[in-house]
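User: Hey, my collaborator sent me this sequence without any context and asked if I could get a structure. I don't really work with proteins. Can you help?
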Amino acid sequence: AADKITSLGREFGKLRELKTNGNELTLEQQKRYAELDEQLIAASRNFENYRIELAKKFPKRFNIEKEFKGNEVWKADLEGWSKETGENIVYVYTLVGKDRYHAIVYAPYTQTHSKTEIKAKDLNAKIFEFRNELKTLNKDPRQLGKELYDILIKPIERQLEGTEAKTILWSQDGNLRLVPLAALWDGKQYFGQKYQNVTVTLASRSRLGKPVSKNWLVLGLGVSEGKKVKDPNGTRDIVFDPLTAVRDELLTIVKTTPDESGVLPGKRFLNSVFTKRELKNQLPGNYKVVHIASHFSLYPGDETNSFLLLGDGDILTVNQLRHNQQLFVGVELLTLSACDTAIVEKDSTGKEIEGFGYVAQDEGAQAILATLWKVADESTQIFMSEFYRLRAEHPEKNKAEIIRLVQKEMIEGKIDAKYTHPYFWSPFVLIGNWR
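Assistant: No problem. I've predicted the 3D structure and written it out in structure-token form, which is a compact way to encode the shape of the chain:
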């Protein structure tokens, strides 16, 4: 059984750590080590057969063989990261087929797999229904959250528990990227109360495990004023409401002089001084964090028409960002305190069009903190301020853990009892380097 393999892998890992640390194993431990090694090799062969069959079932999926080979490399990375950080980390690779959902759990020494019989159209319907309930304050999304939990998590629940993991790196297939995993309900608690969830992409792999700085210098950029701008084609006016909490958000996060009350040292550019020219002047630079609080206009399936609103009324399209030559290189965290910045859409041919957050990662950012829907201005300020406050107080904690702690505080009403509904805390997702 998959959970037994996971358990064997954990036992093998402990013996291997003893061995690699220069400890001499007892005769009994040596015998057990050899037994475990043999069993895990056999399990690996069985998994390889499964992987070959699975690849055949997805012949139209671009580069699936390359993805699987990359996943194998990650097993060694997981071992190193887990040893280095002192916490177990697992990687879950998902595939949505026409008639079933597949999840593969990669742990430091093992890989196990599971499947759920469900048609893709039925799974997609549940995903969109769940998102609608999450965004509706007078609805309780926990029943649908439990249904999705049973489909997506329940089949690998024992494997996750068996690894004793805290952080889960997710490769989410298709519309699964629209699901805030933290908001899934296991019958007793939200999934985000138990695990730290991180979205990973092919672009993030080379920078995923890089150590991060203890001290952050931040570039804060924001738009608090209402604006009316032309869309990129110049055919229609788009009206953006004021974001009245943005000024306080930036003041709370960024201090430009030692006597200011902001959490992190850096520079602020608000409204008219937040321009495309200033953005390019400041970046690339010495900033480890770039925090952008503004509107994002998502035009499904078209990155030339999807854009970030700048403070002088200008716009930065996703397509323009893609051609800005590693604008965010050296940035450890790009926070997009805006709407829909973590979304991936499809065009009329079915080709994926990446949102602002994903493209920013291609342009050098190690990690992105982005959003899955139109977020509430006031609660976003609270979320972001608490995130940076906790990071400044606990630089030893990783970004994923701090996000989980903030979400937990909001769930329990410790920050403000008005913001316990998942609408307020679950749309924030971390993409890329979790450290």
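In plain terms: The mean pLDDT is 90. You can pass these tokens on to your collaborator as they are.
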